[in-house]
């Protein structure tokens, strides 16, 4: 009940007893019980008014069930269309993968060219490099 254990419930009851006294606790319990009953009755009244309004407008339980069933069927069809056509997704993913591989190969070729030009520059320079101001 609300994540409260037995020991915690007894402790809360002890605190209530200490705060309000033994003569007020039954009155409080009656008031809480009446309030809960009134809330339950109000909720049931609201539900019945909604049902009466739905029936007056031509919606009964069966038509509502049919309507929700049709909606569920349409959702299932959409899922099948999205998940059923995996060939397009597979084609797209293979295209993206091949393009990524081509870019990686292009980058490795450029790295090799850069390394070759750096080696060539080092071979051309003899002696210490002087800075000009």
Mind explaining what this structure looks like?
The chain is an all-alpha fold and 133 residues long. Helix content is 83%, strand content 0%. The protein has helices at 6-20, 25-56, 61-84, 86-124. The mean pLDDT is 75.
By secondary-structure content and strand pairing, the structural class works out as: mainly alpha
Q: Counting H and I runs of at least 4 residues, what is the number of helices?
A: 4
Radius of gyration: 39 Å
For the biggest sheet, the summary is:
none
Distance between the termini: 83 Å
Could you spell the SSE succession in H and E letters?
Answer: HHHH
Extended strand count? 0
Outline the low-pLDDT stretches. none
- The coarse overall form would be flat
Helicity level: over 70%
What do the pLDDT scores average to?
75
Task: Outline the fold blueprint.
Layout: H1 6-20, H2 25-56, H3 61-84, H4 86-124
Keywords: Membrane, Protein transport, Translocation, Transmembrane, Transmembrane helix, Transport
Subcellular location: Membrane
Protein name: Sec-independent protein translocase
